[in-house]
Amino acid sequence: MVKQAVKVFVRTRPTATSGSGIKIGPDGQSVSVNVPKDESAGIINNQQESFSFKFDGVLENVSQEEAYTTVAHEVVDSLMSGYNGTIFCYGQTGAGKTFTMSGGGAGYAHRGIIPRALYHIFREIDLRVDKMYRVHVSYLEIYNEQLYDLLGDTPGTSDSLAVLEDSNNNAYVRGLTLIPVSSEEEALAQFFLGEQGRTNAGHVLNAESSRSHTVFTVHVEMRTSEAASERAILSKINLVDLAGSERTKKTNVTGQTLKEAQFINRSLSFLEQTVNALSRKDSYVPFRQTKLTAVLRDALGGNCKTIMVANIWGEPSHTEETLSTLRFASRVRTLTTDLAVNESNDPGLLLRRYERQIKELKAELAMRDTLGGRARVSYDDLTDDELRELHGTARRFLQGQAEPEELPADSLKRVREAYKALRAVHIALKSEMAQQLATLQRATEDGAAATGAQNPTISLPGVGDVDPRAAAGFTVGQAPLDARPPPRSELGDHHPHAHATASSPPPMLKPQSSHFTGDAASTYGDASVPDSPSIARGSGAAAATRLAGIFAVPGDRNAIFRRYKSDVPEGRELTAALKAAAAALRETRGSIKTLGEAVNGAKRRVDELSAAVSQRRSAAPAGGDGEVLDSEAYALVQELKVVKAQYRADFDALKVAREELEPQIQAASVARAALLEAFDRWAATQSDATLKRMAATSRNGPGPGDEEDELDAGEAFERMQLARITERDPDSLAYHAAMRRTAATAHGGGGGAVSRPPAGAGGAKAAAAATRRMEATQALNRAGVRM
Ligand SMILES: Nc1ncnc2c1ncn2[C@@H]1O[C@H](COP(=O)(O)OP(=O)(O)OP(=O)(O)O)[C@@H](O)[C@H]1O
C-alpha cells in the first residue's frame, strides 16, 4: 500500500464582473480572497479581510483539454495500471462542476472530464495489445437521499440499491447495473443515456442547476494475454458531479425545491464532517450517515487515488460560497488514502488452467511414450471395470494363479493401484480364511465330523465353491474369476469410482507391453497368436508381453509401425486421416503465424503513427483543442485510420483462426490415438515371425514421415499473445456517433439507437422525475423565480 495525498485543484468560472476579490498567486497554486469589510458592523470590527489558500493547482481561463490534462490524465493512467481513482467536483451552484465533469453543451471541444476519460481509456486499451481489458460503466444518481440507477433496465430505486462493502472493505453499490462496453462510442452512448435520465431530475432551480449528486464509474478489468490470465486486475474510476450547495434563503425556495436543497445541504454537510473527522484522525468517521459519504468512502480514506476539483464562481455576490468552498477544499487536501492494486483470481479460470495443464502433461507423457517406443500408457484414473479387473488379477496373484508381470507397472498411478488392490485383497482373503476356519471348527465341535469328513464341501455365500482341498487345509474358498465385483471395502470408499453407477463403460484392461521385459516371449511361445484381433482380457497381457519381446530391439517398434502405415490397409487409412488432420492444423498454424506477424507489424505502425500524431498535436499552437490539423498531420491521421482498419481486420481473422485451432488439435490427437491403438491391436494379432520380418525389411528402408510427431511443432503459437484491439478513430468520430445513437434512442430508437431504454427517460423513474420537475416548477413559480 502506498500513502497518497488527496490532490485538490481549484477551477474558476469566468466572470464578467470586475472586482471579484479573488487573486491567483504567480505560483499557480495559491488563491487569496479579499472580503470587503462589513460596514454594518461599524467602523471598528475584527473581520478578517484576506484569506489565503494553497492547492495543487489553480485552473483559471484554461481550456477543457488543459483541465483534463492537469486534473484527470494521471488518474486515468493509474486506472489503466490497476489503481482506483475518484475525481469529484465540488462547489456552489453554477460554479462549473457539470461543465468540468461532463462538459458544456457547445460541442466536442467543450466536452468535460468524463468523455475525455473514456477516449483516454479506450486509446490506452488500443495501445496495450499485450493486455486484455473488459470495461463496464455504471451511472448512479443520489437524489433526495435515494439511489437511482441511471443505466438500469428497470427504474432503479433505493429499495433495490444499497451501498455495501466488499471483503476488502471497498465500497460498492449492490444492484447497480454495470453495462459492458467495448468501445469509446459505446461507453459515451451509455454516458449520454444516463445524462438524459439525470436531466429529467435536474435543472429545476434554474437552467444550470443539478439537484442530485451523480457518480459515473468506469470499471476496468485487466488481464495479461499470457497463460496466467486467470489473474485479473480490477480497478475503477468514479467521476463525481456533486449537487451545488446554495443558500435557501438566497433563492427563497419552498416545497419540493426546498426539500431538495435540504437534502443536498445535509449530505454536503456530512461530507464536510466526514472530511473533518478524517483530517483529525477521529476514531469515528460518519461515513454511513448519508448515501453520498458511503459511496465516497474509498475516495476519502480508502484504496483510491483521489482528486478534488473545487469550482468557484468569483462574482462578488458569491464570496461567501467561494470562501466556504476553498475552506472545505483545504481540509480535503490534508487527507491521505492508501493506494494498492486490486488483484483477483478467477477461480473458474484457475480451474480451467489446471485442467488445461493436466491435459497438456498427459499429452506430453503420451508423446514421450510414443517416442520412447513404449505402447500408449493411460495416465487417467482407473475405471470401475479396470479396478475390478485389477482386483481379480491381484486375487489370482495372491492365490498363486497369476504371474507378477500380469500386475500393471507401466505408470506410477497403476503401480499404486496395484499395491492398494493387493492390500485390499489380502485383507479380504484373511477375513475369508478366518471365517472358513471358524466354520470348520464349529462343524468339528458340533460332532459333524463323521459326515463332514466324507463331504467337506461348505457353502460360503457370495464367495463361490470351496475347493475340496480346503478340507485338507491347503487353500481357501475360491470364487471363479469375475464371479463378483470387488466389495466396496476393497475398492476403498475414497476412490473416485467407488460410487460410480453400473452404467460405466464396459471393461477393457488395456495391455501395456512396455513394462513387460525379460523372457516373457519364451514363456508364451511364438505360436500364441490370439484368436480374436482384439486383445481379449486374459490373453491381452500375454499378447502384450509377447510384443514386448519383439519390440525389445530398439527401433523395431517404429520400423514395424512404418510398415503398418504404408502396407496394411487399415494403417494406410488411419494414416491418411491423420495426415489430413495434421495438414489442416499446419495450415491453420501457418495462417496464425502470418496473421500474427501482420498484426504485430500493423501494431508497430499504429504506435508510430499515434506518436507522430500526438507530437504534431502538442506542437500545434496553444489555445485550441488540437482539432485543426496541418496537412502533414492530416495525412498521418488518414494513414493511421487505414492501418488501424487493416490491424482490426487482421486481428479479427487471427481470432477466427485461433478459434479453429483447438478443435483441430483435438481432431489430430484423436486421429493419432486411433492410429496408435489400431497399430497395437493389429500387432497383437500378428505372428512374431511376421513382425520380425517386417521390422527387418523396414529398419533401413524409407517410410512415410511420422506426421503425428509434427503435430506438436509450432507450439510457440499456443503462447502467441492474445491482442484485443478495438479500432477507434483518433478524433471525435466516436463522440459524435455516440451522440447520434443517444439521440436516436431518445427519439424512439431506430438504427443505431442504444439498445437499452434509458432508466431515467422511461418508466417510473421518468414519471417520478417529471413529477419532481412539475412540483418544483410550481414551487418556483410561487416563489417568483423565473425558469
Ligand atoms: N470554466 C468555464 N468556462 C466556460 N463556461 C463555464 C465555465 N464554468 C462554468 N461555465 C458555464 O457556467 C454555467 C454553469 O455551469 P455548470 O452547470 O457547470 O455549474 P454547476 O456547478 O454544475 O452548477 P449546479 O451545481 O447548479 O449544477 C454553464 O452555462 C457553463 O457552461
From TrEMBL:
GO molecular function: ATP binding; microtubule binding; microtubule motor activity
GO-annotated cellular components: microtubule
Listed GO biological process terms: microtubule-based movement
Keywords annotated in UniProt: ATP-binding, Coiled coil, Microtubule, Motor protein, Nucleotide-binding
Pfam families: KIF9 (PF23735), Kinesin (PF00225)
InterPro entries registered for this protein in UniProt: KIF6/9_C, Kinesin-like_fam, Kinesin_motor_CS, Kinesin_motor_dom, Kinesin_motor_dom_sf, P-loop_NTPase
SUPFAM superfamilies assigned to the protein according to its UniProt record, in alphabetical order: P-loop containing nucleoside triphosphate hydrolases
Ligand binding (ATP): 91-98
Source domain of life: Eukaryota
Compositional bias per record (Basic and acidic residues), positions renumbered to this chain: 485-495
Coiled coil location: none
Stretches assigned to the Kinesin motor domain: 5-335
Chain intervals for the UniProt region annotation (Disordered): 448-537, 745-765
Signal peptide: none
Ranges of biased composition (kind: Low complexity): 754-765
Family indicated by similarity: Belongs to the TRAFAC class myosin-kinesin ATPase superfamily. Kinesin family.
Listed PANTHER family: CENTROMERE PROTEIN E, KINESIN HEAVY CHAIN ISOFORM X1
Protein's name in the database: Kinesin-like protein
Taxonomic source organism: Volvox africanus
